[in-house]
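Batch manifest, entry 17 of 40.
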Amino acid sequence: MSDVSSARRPAGELESEVLAALWSARQPMTPQDVQTALGGDLARTTIATILARLHDKGTVERTRTGRAYAYTPTVQDTAGLAARRMHTELGREADRSTVLARFVSDLSAEDEQLLRALLGGDGDGAVDGTNRVGGTNSGGSRATGGPGSAGAPC
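Output type: structure tokens
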């Protein structure tokens, strides 16, 4: 029985593979289309289940095409997926201010500068998220100044 558990994929791997197939297709796909795109190793029912779960999470939308659904991603890429997860987690807490303060206090100096630039705080970056603010935090203060805030890993 240990052979079966060792053959299991890590959590979220199948969802990632299905999303990658949808992103590369750039058009709505049925579970059968996704199965073909992934090489046919997975059962169509498994793919349909994964797509239904992604739909429940709001990560894909679906439209009826004949007797099946065709799925389209609601996020553009892995960065969009990560952003959606962050929004979801933030939405689960009543005290958003504390959650955001704790998040910001644990940012590295480089990530803090990037966030400031994206929010228009220092004018060093673009809002499109493609420019990375380089260099070090030369004398800038941390958002909270709490212990462990300087250069703490994310």
